[in-house]
Each structure stands twice: as C-alpha cells, then as structure tokens.
Amino acid sequence: MVLKKFTRIVAGTAFFLLISALFSCEEFIIVDCTECESIEPDAAILEIKLAEYRPGALITIYEGTPENNIIFKQFISHSKSEYQSVILNKSYTLTAEYTLGDRKDIAVNSVMPRVKLEEAKCNEPCYFVYDTSVDLTLKNSR
C-alpha cells in the first residue's frame, strides 16, 4: 500500500515536470562555449546545405517570405554547402532550384538566426549565435 502511494507520487511529479518542460516559454539551447563571443554580434554566418549530386543550383535568399519579393541575395552554387553573412533576428526564406535535364526541383526552407546572452553555462558571460543552418537538400528525389 505504501509502495503504491509512493509510486503514484513519483509518477505524478515526473509527469508534472515533463509537462512543465514541454510547455515552458524558454527555448532549450545547447551552448558551445568555444563558439561564444564577448561582444554582441550583429550578423551571423548562415550555413546552407545543398544536394551534392545536383550541381549548379540557383540559390535565392529572401528577406521574410518569398511573397514579400525582397531578394537579399541570389547566386549559383556548385558545391554541397555555401556560407552567407546575414543580419541576426531577421527571418529569411531560402530556395534552391535544381535543374536536371528538363526537370526542375525546388527545395524551400526558412531560418531566423538569433543570439543569446549566456551568463551561467560558460566561464564568463558571452553571446552565442544559434539557428544558423538551413537544409536545402532534396528529400524525395527520383
């Protein structure tokens, strides 16, 4: 009887903690202190991952959504990844248009690079930039 009551209390507490963690407003970010900066950055380097077997992709970076029609940058890539400097705390939508013969495939993804002041996890307070990678590889190519 006592064991049953104890098990209920432990299970209830674990359930409460799990629900609290899932619905909390705080984002869970793993901070790599070696990538922290002492001065707050105003830009980030965006890593754009591309399909390596489809050279010559037309990459378009839009500020906000493509419907806004504000092109931040457009270029052709022949590698499996590209790097582009962008402004922090701004939303970007990226497209990669792959052409193979008469067939065109388009990959679309969005990202908002952000910065966080980390005061507790590292030796000294520092700024950590996150959400800097965007995947434009093709998921279901034939």
So what's the CATH class? Mainly Beta
Structural class: mainly beta
- The multimeric state of the shown protein is single chain
Output the radius of gyration.
Answer: 21 Å
Structure description:
The chain has one helix and nine strands; from the N terminus they run αβββββββββ. β2 (57-63) and β3 (71-77) form a beta hairpin. A four-stranded antiparallel β-sheet has the order 3-2-5-6, with no helix packed on it. The protein has one domain: Immunoglobulin-like. It starts with a helix and ends in a 6-residue tail after the last strand. The protein has 142 residues and is mainly beta.
Short description:
This protein is mostly beta strands. Helix content is 15%, strand content 43%.
SSE layout:
Blueprint: H1 2-22, E1 43-50, E2 57-63, E3 71-77, E4 81-87, E5 92-100, E6 103-111, E7 114-118, E8 126-130, E9 133-136
Parallel strand pairs: 1-9
Antiparallel strand pairs: 1-4, 2-3, 2-5, 5-6, 7-8
